[in-house]
């Protein structure tokens, strides 16, 4: 990857599509997750057992879609709790597959960012997986401006940061400290892919899933 492609992806839509302040955003997401958890517990059945390897999440502003998205991120939180609860040097990569609203592409493109900023904490990119996918020749690389204009992936990042921090607090793991954000890289990384639309996958809207899997089944 050339130096021109390396960048930190800023929280471009904070303050409009979702709160920009730590306290307000944390409280908003906590409310969404608690409400979803209470509803899940009240209607839980044997069919709900287990942790899925991927989820589908909406990407509208949180006032419109946050309550629905919270159900998906409860699953990610459970996966993280399971991982951190094992108390070993384990890692997880969350692949965020999302559509493009601002530019056309014939195939898929991967974020060129090294770090993703959110008002809660920063998320680190899985550089190794990105390099592996880029070597296939099936992907292009996003530049900073194009990446930051697209909201569909960004709407997932604060939720990912929130459930990661919550999982760490719940497990009180000795292998990672919440006040040392740089150590998150060892445990959870993300890789945003914009598509025509494990690994743990978050797909921002289901209509892109079949197209992606049909075209890139050999890659994934």
Task: Classify the fold: give the CATH topology.
Answer: Protocatechuate 4,5-dioxygenase, Chain B
Element pattern in H and E: EHEHEEEEHEHHHEEH
CATH superfamily assignment? LigB-like
Shape: globular
Which runs of at least 5 residues are low in confidence (pLDDT < 50)? 173-185, 196-200, 205-213
Compute the CA-based radius of gyration.
17 Å
The level-1 CATH class: Alpha Beta
Structural class: alpha/beta
Give the end-to-end Cα distance, rounded to a whole number of Å.
21 Å
- How would you state the average pLDDT, rounded? 78
Describe the structure.
With 220 residues, the chain is α/β, with parallel strands linked by helices. It has one domain: LigB-like (Protocatechuate 4,5-dioxygenase, Chain B), CATH 3.40.830.10. Helix content is 39%, strand content 18%. The protein contains 7 helices and 9 strands; from the N terminus they run βαβαββββαβαααββα. Strands 1, 2, 3, 4, 5, 6, 7, 8 and 9 form a 9-stranded mixed sheet that branches. A hairpin with a 6-residue loop joins β5 and β6. α1 crosses α2 and α2 runs parallel beside α6. It is globular. About 12% of the residues have low confidence.
Give a concise summary:
The protein is α/β, with parallel strands linked by helices. The protein has helices spanning 22-42, 62-85, 127-134, 144-149, 151-154, 157-171, 209-216, and strands at residues 7-9, 54-56, 92-99, 108-110, 113-116, 123-125, 139-141, 188-195, 200-203. Strands 1, 2, 3, 4, 5, 6, 7, 8 and 9 form a 9-stranded mixed sheet that branches.
């Amino acid at each position: 990857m050339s130096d021109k492609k390396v960048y930190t992806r800023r929280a471009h839509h904070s303050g409009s599509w979702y709160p920009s302040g730590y306290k307000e955003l944390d409280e908003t997401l906590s409310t969404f997750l608690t409400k979803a958890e209470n509803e899940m517990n009240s209607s839980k059945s044997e069919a709900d057992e287990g942790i899925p390897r991927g989820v589908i999440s909406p990407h509208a502003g949180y006032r419109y879609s946050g309550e629905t998205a919270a159900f998906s991120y409860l699953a990610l939180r459970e996966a993280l709790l399971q991982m951190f609860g094992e108390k070993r040097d384990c890692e997880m990569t969350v692949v965020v597959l999302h559509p493009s609203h601002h530019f056309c592409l014939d195939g898929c493109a991967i974020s060129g960012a090294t770090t993703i900023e959110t008002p809660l904490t920063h998320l680190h990119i899985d550089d190794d997986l990105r390099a592996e996918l880029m070597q296939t020749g099936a992907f292009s690389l996003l530049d900073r401006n194009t990446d930051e204009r697209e909201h569909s992936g960004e709407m997932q990042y604060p939720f990912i940061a929130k459930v990661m921090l919550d999982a760490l607090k719940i497990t009180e793991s000795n292998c990672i400290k919440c006040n040392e954000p740089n150590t998150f890289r060892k445990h959870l990384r993300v890789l945003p892919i914009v598509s025509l639309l494990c690994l743990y996958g978050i797909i921002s809207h289901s209509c892109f899933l079949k197209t992606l899997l049909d075209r890139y089944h050999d890659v994934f």
